[in-house]
Amino acid sequence: MKAITKNFRLGFGSFIDKKLMPFVDPRPEKQLSPCPEQCAQPYGFKNQMSLTMDTARFSKEVEEAEISGNLDAPEGGFDAVVQALTCNSSIGWRERARKMIVFSTDAGFHYAGDGRVRFASFHSAAYKMGLKRTGLTPLITSNVCTWEEFIQMAGVVVPNDGHCHLDKHGYYTKSLDQDYPSIALLHQKIKERKANIIFAVTEKNKDLYKQLSDALPDVSSSVGVLADDSRNIVTLIEEEYNKISQKIIMVDNANASQGLRLSYRSKCLDGHSLKETNVCDGIKVGDEVSFEVTLESTHCVKERDFELKIGPSGLDETLQVDVHVQCDCDCETEVIFLFLPKCLFFGLV
User: Fold this and answer.
1) Residue 139 domain-assigned?
2) Cα-flanking dihedrals φ and ψ of residue 2, to 5°?
3) Biggest CA pair distance of the chain
4) Gene3D superfamilies, per this entry (predicted)?
5) Taking the complete model, does pTM exceed 0.85, yes or no?
6) Which residues fall within 8 angstroms of residue 255, CB to CB, at 6 or more apart?
7) What is the pLDDT of residue 152?
8) 3-class SS at 346?
9) In three state form, how does the secondary structure of 126-161 look?
10) Distance CA 270, CA 267 (A)
11) In terms of domains, do 300 and 169 share one?
12) What is the mean predicted confidence (pLDDT) over 57-86?
């Protein structure tokens, strides 16, 4: 990062999963230490260190961070991303800085709906623990869990509200109360915060996260392959950051339901003719890029006044445009009640 910019801050957070069956092992000894060897208790998300210029402290926090584990393959990373984006004061985001999240994992992800645990999921998790019986009663009487715990496992049905819920120690407090965020909510929060996100994942998860990145339109995201021992993390971040910083994606808050449509044209694709696009790639330091924006009213709705925001994705720069849609001509609003001879004294003009 020092080779890229002199003015930067680093922070560090970690995530495991919801401390509920079938996401983690409910046995008391595994709740304390879910790993084959001694490790920390599982948790949803923890902000280990807020953004700081102290790079030595950052290295120390990463090296000393305790590991933990979960039971099923996917992890609760979406909870972590939403908290990192929405907890502005706890994380320490600066308003006019380029915001970047490096999402590093060797597993898949849970998303909205996964918190609603089904009986099949319960049995599947029990089988992973080596329990070869079927039926709820044998599982409960074998001290895997109590009926009260099973009721708790039956589902986290409250949708994720997308708000900040970190306590003074940096822990996510709604992990057991709210479902995982949806991909749509993730997209919304990244877009609102004008953040850039790099998915640093292992080879076996590359295709999954490439699909996720493709499902996040109009935000700056990329996917890089992480070595099994993470030895290439520095190179990966540098390469993916360069990809992001060399691309400009113009975004806006126009909504089709409002009857508004924006289109973009630029010469950046070939340098000569205007072509319809909201993306310019391969931008170098010092290059100038211009866009021609066209606003169209497709149909009239009840609201006539709108506040449009237009700007590049991943940068805290926005052009605000106040729009008033004129759906009727002035002459249509006036009715003159005259019975004219030319109309044989019929009708209104």
Assistant:
1) no
2) -65, -25
3) 100
4) ntegrin, alpha v. Chain A, domain 3, von Willebrand factor, type A domain
5) no
6) none
7) 46
8) coil
9) HHHCCCCCCCHHHHHHCCCCCHHHHHHHCCCCCCCC
10) 6
11) no
12) 90
Same domain (yes/no): 160, 181:
yes
In degrees and rounded to multiples of 5, residue 55 shows phi and psi of -70, -30
Q: Output DSSP code: residue 192.
A: H
More confident residue, 1 or 185: 185
Name the residue range of residue 261's domain: 249-332
pLDDT of residue 349: 60
Could you write out the three-class secondary structure of 304-336? CEEEEEEEECCCCCCEEEEEECCCCCHHHHCCC
Residue 123 lies in a domain: no
Confidence (pLDDT) at 247: 87
Pairing of strands 220-225, 195-201: parallel
Shared domain check, 276 and 241: no
Lowest mean pLDDT among 171-175, 218-222, 285-289, 329-333: 329-333
Please tell me the distance from the alpha carbon of residue 31 to that of residue 45, in angstroms, as a whole number: 16
User: Domain for residue 343, yes or no?
Assistant: no
Say if residues 307 and 188 touch (Cβ distance below 8 Å): no
132 in any annotated domain = no
User: Can you tell me the distance from the alpha carbon of 76 to that of 96, in angstroms, rounded to the nearest whole number?
Assistant: 29
What's the CA gap between 110 and 182, in Å, rounded? 9
Judge contact between 185 and 162, C-beta under 8 A.
yes
User: What's the pLDDT at 339?
Assistant: 65
State the Cα–Cα distance between residues 260 and 303, nearest whole angstrom: 11
